[in-house]
Design goal:
5-stranded antiparallel beta sheet, single chain, alpha+beta, 135 residues
């Protein structure tokens, strides 16, 4: 049976999503994608989801997780759902249809439906590959 420390999970999903290098570590275990995310600063994913062409400009993957450090706010555009913020030591479930916002450096561990996360990450990777490269 697979097991690992979060920081020992494969970087960028084992190379599947190079744009996530050094801040997203994940592996598929059965029907789940186990992922560890470390943001270095604040981040609002609103524009990312829109540019990635996700339906409605929202994340289509439900997330089940645990915040180790920092905090995550989930907002639910075009719904009557209240935004929610989770912090260190809290477990969470964010259903599909959210936008994630990080107000500070954050570390969290997630267990996501593999297919849904792969569709999300593949869309983000395609956008990353279409951007002009500097250098």
């Amino acid at each position: 049976m697979p097991h690992a420390k979060p920081t020992d999970l494969p970087n960028a999903g084992g190379g599947r999503w190079p744009s996530a290098k050094d801040h997203f570590y994940s592996a598929q275990w059965g029907d789940l994608e186990v992922g560890y995310t470390a943001t270095e600063s604040s981040r609002d994913c609103t524009d990312l989801y829109r540019v990635a062409g996700l339906p409605g400009g929202v994340c289509t993957c439900p997330h089940y997780g645990y915040v180790l450090e920092g905090s995550i706010t989930a907002v639910y555009p075009n719904t009557d759902w209240s935004e929610e913020t989770v912090g260190p030591g809290e477990v969470y479930f964010f259903p599909a249809g959210h936008v994630l916002k990080y107000s500070e450096a954050t570390k969290h561990l997630e267990f996501n439906p593999a297919y849904a996360l792969q569709q999300l990450m593949d869309a983000i990777q395609r956008v990353s590959e279409s951007l002009p490269r500097s250098g």
